[in-house]
Amino acid sequence: xxSNIYLDFNATTPVDERVLAEMLPYxxxxxxxxxxxxxxxxxxxxxxxxxxxxxxxxxxxxxxxELIFTSGATESxxxxxxxxxxxxxxxxxxxxxxxxxxxxxxxxxxxxxxxxAEVDFLNVDHEGKIDIAELKKVLKKETVCVAxxxxxxxxxxxQNIREISEAVHANGSILFSDTxxxxxxxxxxxKEMGIDAACISAHKIYGPKGAGALFLNxxxxxxxxxxxxxxxxxxxxxxxxxxxxxxxxxxGKAAEIANEEWWNxxxxxxxxxxxxxxxxQDCGNVIINGSIKDRLPNTSNLTIKGIKADKLxxxxxxxxxxxxSACTSALPEPSHVLRAMGISEEDAYSSIRISLGKTTTDEExxxxxxxxxxxxxxxxx
Length: 381
What we know:
The protein has 381 residues and is α/β, with parallel strands linked by helices. The protein folds into two domains: 5-13 and 263-380, Aspartate Aminotransferase, domain 1, CATH 3.90.1150.10; 17-256, Aspartate Aminotransferase, domain 2. It is 39% helix and 13% strand. It contains twelve helices and twelve strands. The chain has helices at 17-23, 40-60, 73-87, 103-114, 132-138, 161-170, 190-193, 245-281, 309-314, 336-340, 345-349, 362-380; strands at 5-6, 67-70, 94-98, 118-122, 143-147, 174-177, 197-201, 212-216, 286-288, 299-304, 319-320, 351-355. The strands form three sheets. A seven-stranded mixed beta sheet has the order 2-8-7-6-5-3-4, with helices on both faces. It has a three-stranded antiparallel beta sheet with strand order 9-10-12. Strand 6 (174-177), helix 7 (190-193) and strand 7 (197-201) form a beta-alpha-beta unit. Helix 1 (17-23) packs antiparallel against helix 8 (245-281), helix 3 (73-87) packs parallel to helix 4 and helix 8 (245-281) packs across helix 12 (362-380). The longest helix is centred in the last third of the chain and has 37 residues, at 245-281. It starts with a strand and ends with a helix.
């Protein structure tokens, strides 16, 4: 058994060896700047970027011209929400989002409020789902954009994004969805789902950190954004900066692999997740948070009654576990996601997130479940 077992794939994933092999030539041999139009080094880099754009488009079901390469999901979210606010000021200044969104969305919406935007934050039920009726009541003619994540990063809960889209579009508004955790784990077709703008992050799908993309619908409706970074005409003038060619190549290869393998990976990982949950629940007083039916195949958020999550995790140094989002794990507050779902502060402090991945083995999850159960019994008795 390895000395350390990784169970935090929602935070980040290891780079697939096939992805790394695809990237390596672009660090040295094919090192050209994709914006250099006068020689072969630039042409090779530019061609690689466009090939990757097509691969990412194939994964999410859009046209390659609808993708803007960024440094990751956080930048994509900022460009989308701030860019939409700037582009549609004449229509209105009203945004709607959800209390359980990732902080990249929540913090950006708070900044928009400081800039003059009106933002409504929707409640969720005990599973983490919004009430479509409440959404419809909050929508108004000044509503420019509704931001609802497809899959929650802490609980894995999936929103009914198709029904949400219908309500948003009936109001003439734009639907932005943080699809970061969903892509590569379930089938995501932005056109079929009715998503108008979405973000992608390479390091969540076994690609490199520092590479991502923003999808912007080109018609029905066409989504316009105002650039938030300036300094060149890169990415159709919407995202200035020399393109990270190795990272983009890695994102493209990771997308290609995910497109081919996500279904088999999801079936195997879901089976492991279910067995692991059952084994830990046998310890008693363990509750699954979020929707059991409508969630990502790899994610398990568990409240272990009467035991503080930080103490449990610190007693298991050979297991990589989390208490919530990697972006907020250093903060002492309980999970805002669990609190919004009506979970008590005490239980939120007693909750852990386990997220499995395609490199997780049966031996690893079984060993991890045994270790977790042993520590639970020690702490209780």
